[in-house]
Amino acid sequence: MEPKPPQETTRIREDLLQQILEQISSVMKQVHREVMPRDFFLSPPQAKLVMLIDKHSEASISVKELAQLADITPGAITQFMDALIKKDMVRREADPADRRIVRLKLTPSAKGQIDNFKKDFFTYAARKFDVLSTNELAILSQLLAKVSAKTLSNDK
Q1: Number of folded domains in the chain?
Q2: What CATH number is associated with residue 139?
Q3: Is residue 102 part of a domain?
Q4: What's residue 156's pLDDT?
Q5: What integer pLDDT is reported at residue 58 of this predicted model?
Q6: 90 has which bridge partners?
Q7: CA 115 to chain centre
Q8: Percent of the chain with pLDDT over 90
Q9: Where in the sequence is the domain holding 132, given as residue range(s)?
Q10: pTM of the shown model
Q11: Which of 22, 52, 84, 103 has its CA 20 to 30 A from that of 66?
């Protein structure tokens, strides 16, 4: 068997990458569509941010930390938070150790809504991934972690 020319290999990789990205996006949209209650008034990006804030609810999270975790700018976080504050989902607090830092916490009413949403979200996601064995899930997780950990600055 002859090795494939570099151009063909590049095209094959590009096609595979496009398929993978489309499939990941499709799975996430299906899970969101299935789980998102009709009266749930958060967009998927807002829901993601609220879930990240909830994950750090013990100590709260700073705007800067949330921006890094969500991989968006602090300015975009501020715009999202303004909308979430109007919806009574999030509140801002001054950091007791450094007043220049703004910390974010879920409101008590948001906490219950998010707990229910997360339970439904992960229940549906688990059903969606039932087609994979535990070993296949572990491999998929490892592969996605490997891709996620790679930074583009490694290529320079």
Answers
A1: 1
A2: 1.10.10.10
A3: yes
A4: 47
A5: 76
A6: 106
A7: 16
A8: 40
A9: 43-149
A10: 0.66
A11: 22
